[in-house]
Amino acid sequence: MNKKILASVFVTLNVAPWLALFSYPAKTGLELYCSVPFEIKIVKQQSITLQGTIKTHYYPDRTAISFISGGLVQTATQLSGEKHWRINRRAELNYHLAEGYLHSLTQQVHPAFGDNLPQPLAETYLFPTYKKQHRDYYQLARLDNNDVIVSMAGMPRLYCHSQ
Fold first, then answer.
1. 3-state DSSP assignment of residue 93
2. Which of 12, 64, 84, 88 could form a disulfide with 115 if both were Cys (CB 3.0 to 4.6 A apart)?
3. What letter does residue 130 receive in the DSSP assignment?
């Protein structure tokens, strides 16, 4: 009887720590903060200036929150003056990493206090990340200090600080 109790105690003491370790969720994501100011001027039939800041927080649970704040100035014609629109939105993202790439999917987009950008202008001029169900792909390069450089096709690189 004592051998059975001793064997059970031995197994419990050797197996329990491993079970506890595997019960914690794996840290398979990033913990980064990215911030980039932008100013984009578009001159077509009407002049558009889009400027502000994008701030994105990536969390280890493979979720992210991205904020865009700034404004859009629209000059329609000589007869009508400038129209000023305020942008203040939050996007909720899910992402996963695969071989140096980050694949994100926008789950929700919420206008915040003061946002008065009409939906047609938002659809035309806002960054695609701020459109629900938008998929994006980024290439990541980790630096020696554990910070990350994010690059996208046709866009400048972002420098993200590890937390």
1. strand
2. 88
3. G
